[in-house]
Structure formats: structure tokens, C-alpha cells
């Protein structure tokens, strides 16, 4: 069976549907609905800055589903996990809040983006290992976009593979793409 290709952007808030009237097949009710006419997936970047209410996520799912089904959401994990708690103890509580949003959206991927200052030191690798091996992933695929240097070293790549975490790459335009890793 051929793989399904999902194409989208990091967020839809900057999307200007009135500038694309000829590309849209029907009138738009919301910016997300206009976006969903042109793309079949989106990375929710706003969840990195603030965790919305589950009712907000349910509204997003309804709006996108009204325009295209299936529509795939990737939820960017809250910065409290990656930047504040830096994968420490408090990260688990934040993760559970992110999971509620991902479940409301019927998302399959949760994306983590660490800061450039979070280098692959032995201490940080221990924190990451502890976090990713103990959180309840449910059926979510976890993807990680490390910023900074050193994450392309063979031992770090092997570590990601063993934890079944897919890596994320940024292309020059600044858009993120992920490769899915299936659970073993």
C-alpha cells in the first residue's frame, strides 16, 4: 500500500485566505478552514507557547474536518517541557496536558523542539532517556527537533533509534518536516 503524503505548514494564523480566493474551492468560514482547503496537515506551533483548552482543540478538529478528511495535526509540545523543565520531573505533567490536546485533535504526532543551548551532554542524554522512556506515549509518534550542534553524531542517532524517536529536520525555508518512526 502506498504511503499517504501529508503536506502543510507550521501554523495557519499567518495564512491570508483573501489573497488566495482563486485557489479556494468554496467560501471560507475561518482561516483554518481556508487553510484546510489547500493543505492536509498542519503543525500547531501555538501549543509551544501556551496549552489551549481541549474545547479549543475540538473546535479546530471540527473546522478542519468540515473541509477535508482526513486532516492531520502535529502538536508541538509545550516549551515548559523542553525549555523550562528541560525534560526534568515537571516535564511529565506538562506532557499530560499536551496529550489532552493531541487526543482532542486526533493527532498522531507530538513534536518536541529543544533550545540550541540543550547540547547532547551525558546529563542531558540521561534526562531525555528518562523522559522518553517513562512517559505514556499512548499511540503517539514522538518526534524531536533538536536545535544546536552535536545531535548528528552516530551515538546520538543510535540513542534516538533505540527510543523510537524520529528526528525532525528544518529545510531552508524554516518549515519543519518529520519522519515517522513506528513503535516496535
Describe this structure as you would to a colleague.
The protein is an alpha/beta fold. The chain has a single domain (8-178), classed as TIM Barrel (Alpha-Beta Barrel). It has helices spanning 31-38, 54-67, 79-84, 91-105, 122-134, 154-162, and strands spanning 8-10, 41-44, 72-76, 109-113, 141-145, 166-170, 176-178. A seven-stranded mixed β-sheet has the order 1-2-3-4-5-6-7. Strand 6 (166-170) and strand 7 form a beta hairpin. Helix 2 (54-67) packs parallel to helix 4. The protein is elongated.
Structural class: alpha/beta
CATH architecture classification: Alpha-Beta Barrel
Approximately how much beta-strand content do the residues carry?
Answer: 15-25%
Largest sheet properties: 7 strands, mixed
Order of helices and strands: EHEHEHHEHEHEE
Within the CATH hierarchy, at the fold level, what is the topology? TIM Barrel
Q: Could you outline the blueprint of secondary structure elements for this entry?
A:
Elements: E1 8-10, H1 31-38, E2 41-44, H2 54-67, E3 72-76, H3 79-84, H4 91-105, E4 109-113, H5 122-134, E5 141-145, H6 154-162, E6 166-170, E7 176-178
Parallel strand pairs: 1-2, 2-3, 3-4, 4-5, 5-6
Antiparallel strand pairs: 6-7
Helix pairs in contact: 1-2, 2-4
